[in-house]
UniProtKB/TrEMBL annotation:
<dbReference type="InterPro" id="IPR038136">
    <property type="entry name" value="CofD-like_dom_sf"/>
</dbReference>
<dbReference type="Pfam" id="PF01933">
    <property type="entry name" value="CofD"/>
</dbReference>
<dbReference type="GO" id="GO:0043743">
    <property type="term" value="F:LPPG:FO 2-phospho-L-lactate transferase activity"/>
</dbReference>
<protein>
    <recommendedName>
        <fullName>LPPG:FO 2-phospho-L-lactate transferase CofD/UPF0052</fullName>
    </recommendedName>
</protein>
<dbReference type="InterPro" id="IPR002882">
    <property type="entry name" value="CofD"/>
</dbReference>
């Protein structure tokens, strides 16, 4: 294992931050850059999504409303996320990272500098990574240009805290040396970014993932009414499992959605081989447990339930159905609240098939969401029996998409509002929604709801 030690050319870290001074700087930054609450004219939305597919419309969505709660899973265990979790511990924050960066302010040179700083990825080479790390923690890296002192000292405080708590330099050696081959692929979606390091330091410091996200939201000037919510608020690692209809159990989100066969093989979410059988249900697993599957039942983040009670629209976003959307739906309390609401409930249908949904039609997507929210195949005493149209009342369909839209079966499920939206071709994933048209379709939906109420 590569061990560079502390080369003489590096001066020792001399940042002296106490816990109390870090809290003071953090609170000062919040107060100095507080955003006003959303006005009543803005529709409020809650989106269940993963970190990639929905990111493409986040910027356009801001033009309609900034009052959006983004609910994201914390069970990703593929690619560099797996290595980061293995070395640093805690929940997977890859999806949270990408959504926060998309939401962060870019309207000023300082806001853009903060975004670039926190989105910056350390080099794969261990020696280069260590050089970069020293320069950033010491405040001497060019990335700090245009970042004012309140921001700089806030971010450096948590990087320094992370450094002291984790003895990060040897860990950088371990991370980069042990996973070098798997990180060679240029298609890798994320590497070791400063967001992950700041997030880790803040999460340990506050003993709260929610507080760490709140810190980043204020530092990067995400509007206060725009929320990024982990569906499970935890400091622990979570593992996703699934049961297929043939009885097969698959452990790990990556193994379910896009397994790789060999550490150097690039991840391909679109062209992965088909599953031997369709997915029956997804659930959470532990290395310990009282039952055969080591199934566990984590508690949903209370903030998610609170938002569900009050938003004007609930969206099941584009993305991996069983590994990005359903992990947020199977938790106790989610189905109960969604079924009780009379608001718009929109399924944004994918434009292409993937390993999880090969052969699915639109009504199959609705059935999967219904089964997840009803916990149809879960614990016997925790099941619901709500109808599909109590969870989904509108389906958005990208024009020229691969998923068949079986209007008759949707009608049998009680869903008659099917909206076709202009699409575009993405060379990486195929047919996707054209962002402006998608947000216009949402605006028209809200307008129609208002007209009906009046």
């Amino acid at each position: 294992m590569l061990n560079l030690g502390n080369p003489p050319l590096f001066k020792p870290l001399h940042i002296q931050y106490s816990l109390s001074s870090s809290r003071f700087i953090f609170m000062s930054s919040i107060n100095a850059h507080y955003s006003p609450p959303a006005t009543s004219l803005q529709p409020s939305i809650l989106v269940f999504s993963g970190g990639t597919a929905f990111n493409g419309v986040v910027e356009e969505l801001k033009k309609l409303t900034t009052s959006v709660a983004h609910v994201l899973p914390v069970s990703d265990d593929g690619g560099s996320t797996a290595e980061i979790v293995r070395v640093l511990g805690g929940p997977a924050v890859g999806d949270i990272r990408s959504r926060c960066l998309r939401l962060s302010d870019q309207s000023t040179s300082e806001a853009l500098a903060v975004r670039n700083l926190l989105g910056y990825r350390l080099p794969l080479d261990a020696r280069e990574a260590k050089l970069e790390w020293y320069g950033i923690v010491e405040g001497e890296h060019p990335l700090w240009k245009d970042v004012s002192k309140p921001y700089r000292e806030t971010i450096r405080a948590f990087l320094a805290y992370f450094q002291n708590q984790f003895n990060v330099l040897p860990r950088l050696d371990a991370l980069h040396a042990s996973s070098y081959i798997t990180m060679l692929s240029k298609s890798l979606e994320e590497q070791m970014s400063h967001f992950v390091l700041v997030m880790a330091g803040a999460r340990i410091f506050f003993q709260s993932l929610d507080a760490a996200i709140f810190l980043f939201s204020r530092v990067s000037q995400i509007p206060s009414e725009s929320l990024v919510l982990p569906v499970i608020s935890t400091n622990d690692r979570l593992t996703l499992g699934c049961e297929l209809w043939d009885g097969t159990i698959i452990r790990g989100q990556n193994e379910i959605s896009h397994p790789t066969f060999g550490s150097s093989q690039p991840i391909d979410k679109v062209n992965s081989s088909s599953l031997p059988s369709r997915i029956k249900r997804v659930f959470y697993m532990s290395s310990e447990g009282s039952n055969l599957l080591h199934e566990v039942f984590p508690t949903v983040n209370p903030s998610v339930l609170e938002q569900l009670k009050n938003v004007d629209c609930i969206i099941y976003g584009m993305g991996s159905l069983f590994t990005s959307i359903c992990p947020s739906l199977v938790l106790l309390g989610v189905g109960e609240i969604i079924a009780s609401r009379s608001c718009a409930k929109v399924l944004m249908l994918n434009g292409t098939h993937d390993r999880e949904t090969s052969g699915f039609s639109a009504s199959y997507f609705v059935t999967a969401i219904t089964d997840a929210l009803n916990r149809t195949y879960g614990h016997l005493n925790k099941r619901l029996k709500n109808n599909p149209n109590e969870y989904v009342n509108t389906v958005f369909v990208p024009k020229d998409g691969q998923i068949p839209v079986d209007i008759k079966f949707l009608a049998d499920q009680g869903i008659v509002n099917v909206v076709h939206v202009k699409s575009m071709h993405d060379p990486k994933v195929g047919i996707v929604y054209e962002p402006t048209s998608l947000i216009q379709a949402l605006a028209d939906l809200f307008s129609g709801c208002v007209n009906k109420q009046s």
